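Structure first, sequence second, as always.
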């Protein structure tokens, strides 16, 4: 199992499958290689659901499913993404991000955990079952899609809008988030609310502040005032470590020279709301704060909502996929696990909104999207074993 996983990781990590939204060439070559591998190993029937995207050379963003008939008619899905985020600052990497580096128990490369570990674990799990010349218990579907890191338009959303793949009693696993020990199953996700703010003042030479309305000063006070949101919406939820969060994130540079009072300031906020918190309530509070700053500093503040979606329902603790997965994890890890909520967002939110039960599970760490992203080999093997047992319902 170990050598198979490392071989697959090595190959998958060699493709810079970066979305054109992030300046990359897309997932096509990686998908072609993986389909070839699947055919050679005879893992199942491949069906393609490719989305058209004229920005990439092949004009295609690949999505495909591998179907392996089981002993029963119950469908079990594993959904993983083919795309990876860019390497970002190359000087922070200790090795080539697109060449797998093995060091003791660790594998290093961009995408080695997010989400190649998920792909490798479920492919090798299925391969192992077929090697033993047995059939999986469930109908196994490995669905590999594009565009997860940049909005899902050409990936899972495209599939849900154009094909009817899932039914209500399907069992669905998304191996795209987890904890370091693989002892958490995520059954809920926070709802992102993203806002762009533009503060408009009046420009003047910095020696004449009486003639100016300093947008930067107003912006700074505004950001501090927005911290009140943490207190106002400070309620907790048992599933989540943190309550709703409200973070100023991106800041656009204003002016070149030091001796000018800026007339404009732009910044963004990324709020992560607990499923029970309605975004309208948050926006109402932001309105109040915004108005007080406008009055106090005589600025105008324009607000643009970048992202504000309906919250996704929580998958019930008693859902069949949660029960089955719990049983298998306990067998492999021999430890108690917990059901949790995730601060980030995976495919699960999109699927849960369609009324489907989804378990988000794998073993991962904080290196996703960072330089020197790594995956622990022993944990990867354990994930593959959990998935193998789940597929064969041992
Ligand atoms: Zn991911």
């Amino acid at each position: 199992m170990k050598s198979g996983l490392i071989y697959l990781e090595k190959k998958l990590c060699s493709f810079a499958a970066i979305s054109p939204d992030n300046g990359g060439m897309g997932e096509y070559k990686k998908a072609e290689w993986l389909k070839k591998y699947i055919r050679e190993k005879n893992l199942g029937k491949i069906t393609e659901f490719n989305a058209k995207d004229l920005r990439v050379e092949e004009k295609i963003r690949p999505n495909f499913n591998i179907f392996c008939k089981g002993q029963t008619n119950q469908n079990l899905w594993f959904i993983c993404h083919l795309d990876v985020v860019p390497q970002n600052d190359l000087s922070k990497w200790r090795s080539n991000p697109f060449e797998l580096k093995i060091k003791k128990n660790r594998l290093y490369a961009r995408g080695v955990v997010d989400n190649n570990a998920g792909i490798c674990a479920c492919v090798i799990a299925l391969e192992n079952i077929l090697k033993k010349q047995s059939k999986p218990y469930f109908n196994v579907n490995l669905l590999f899609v594009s565009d997860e890191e940049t909005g899902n338009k050409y990936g899972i959303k495209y599939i849900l809008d154009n094909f009817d793949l899932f039914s209500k009693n399907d069992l669905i696993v998304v191996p795209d988030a987890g904890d370091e020990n693989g002892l958490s199953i995520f059954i809920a996700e926070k709802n992102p609310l993203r806002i762009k703010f533009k503060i408009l003042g009046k420009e003047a030479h910095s020696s004449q502040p009486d003639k100016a309305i300093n947008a930067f000063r107003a912006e700074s006070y505004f950001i501090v005032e927005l911290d009140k949101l943490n207190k106002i919406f400070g309620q907790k939820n048992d599933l989540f470590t943190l309550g709703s969060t409200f973070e100023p994130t991106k800041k656009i540079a204003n002016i070149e020279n030091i001796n000018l009072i800026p007339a404009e300031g732009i910044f963004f906020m990324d709020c992560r709301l607990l499923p029970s918190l309605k975004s309208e309530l948050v926006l109402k509070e932001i309105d109040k704060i915004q108005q007080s700053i406008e009055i106090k500093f005589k600025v105008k503040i324009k607000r643009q909502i970048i992202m504000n979606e309906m919250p996704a329902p929580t998958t019930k603790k008693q859902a069949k996929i949660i029960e089955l997965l719990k049983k298998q994890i306990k067998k492999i890890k021999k430890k108690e696990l917990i059901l949790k909520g995730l601060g980030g967002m995976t495919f699960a939110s999109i699927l849960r909104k369609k009324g489907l039960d989804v378990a988000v599970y794998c073993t991962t760490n904080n290196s996703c999207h960072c330089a020197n992203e790594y995956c622990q080999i022993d944990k990867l093997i354990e994930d593959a074993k959990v998935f193998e047992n789940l597929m064969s319902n041992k």
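Margin note: The domain at 191-308 is CATH 3.30.70.360 (Alpha-Beta Plaits).
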